[in-house]
Amino acid sequence: MSREVAESFKEALWKLEEDRDVEPMLEVLSDDCEVGNVAVPGTFSGQDGAREFWTRYRKTFDEMKSTFRNIFAGDGRAALEWTTEATENGDSVSYEGVSILEIEGDEVKRFMAYFDPAHLNRQIVD
Which residues are within 8 A (CB) of 1 and not within 5 positions of it... i.e. 6 or more apart? Predict the structure, then answer.
């Protein structure tokens, strides 16, 4: 089941990136989920917190597309290795990292993304 949930997460992320539609992402997350990444302080909790996190995340870039190099899944967890290519104010941005999903049943209970935010910030500022 973890692999299927990871694939659903990936599809929801692509929908968010392409259409700016946060609803498919919320459908993958549990009602009491916790989401975050290394670039924002703290975590966001529940569906309202997740909506805020993913809406803010998508507003960071004009256009964006993530590709996935590896997805490892099993025993209620998944790791997704990715690269995101984006534009921000007309400038190209590329960053890569790993997202960890903690899965309960057919939903993501916890999402955390790890990447080098200093590298990302340098690209946006330059």
Answer: 103, 105, 106
